[in-house]
Amino acid sequence: MSKTLSLIIPTYNMEALLPRCLDSLISEKTTARLEVLVVNDGSKDGSLAVARAFEAKHPECIKVIDKPNGNYGSTINAALPLASGTYVKILDSDDWFDTGALERYLDELDALAEPVDMSITHFRTIHDDGTQETIRYNVYGREPYEYRRIYDLDEVLAGGYIRFFLMHALTYRTELLRSSGYRQTEGISYTDTEWAAFPVFHARNIVFHDIILYQYNLAREGQTMDPAVLMKSLPQLEKVTMSMIDYYYNADTDSLSATRRAFLQQYYRNRIRIMAKCHLMDLPRDCFDAKAFEKLDADLQLAVSRMGLAQIKLYPENKIIRTDAYRYWMKHHRRLPAWVESVNHLADRVMKYLFVRIFHR
Asked: Per the CATH hierarchy, to which homologous superfamily does domain 5-214 belong?
């Protein structure tokens, strides 16, 4: 019997958390339709033994791939050619699924009138203080899309409700990735951004499901999205960004609809903006290297020109003080004065506090 969904689970030194991840996938209603590819990326702890024990107990569902360490992208590249499911999704080994939601999701995938290229579910973030937040593709509480209806992707992108996709929400038709030659950059982290971007060049249709499936654990110390880890990993973020830019250069963008090109151009413009923000606003001042950013910025500006993007602007999050940090950099080749950054950061905190008090009471 063919599988409905293949799950790729990259695993590195997750002995303590991997059992929770795998346990969340196993039920009487899932194992016959689910393929779980646990990719042990050269772990130095007991992750491989944990994975092998689950494989022995559930051989109809769980398969282990053991490989030398090559970081996140290499695990996806190793598993994707072996995936036998109609659809494929990534689940990080420190995260988990809601088991009941997974059962409903498999039912809804099986009930679709035809296989779709992209499938979107909600996900939940779990923070270190125990608070949780559900991430949905809606606008101020409005649900713009009918669930389980298959849409042309251009129709959805033209609506303007979606500015980007996130890995935790995404499932793809497996053959879409294979036929487009999908591969992730190896040797670095943060390549889940490629997973969320590259298939959008090729996907034809999309479906939304009113299911909170992925449980995204932000509470683990050393998690790659921890701000302290993120700032130390700027070279990896830069490499991913340049990989994405190269993909755009090599893609047949002339064959894309005007809607698709406009969406991707806005997406790339925002990605370039994020890289500038990391250096010019988020990085501690004593860690900022003007010469290093000048070199990166030359590549980013070349991309802006080649893609025909509007020039980026870099304002603080608050809507009161409108100082463009990027314009200041372009003129002076240094960051904003320290006192200006301090005022901006204070205004950001005040406005965030007021937003929470007003809209999340």
From this structure: Spore Coat Polysaccharide Biosynthesis Protein SpsA; Chain A (3.90.550.10)
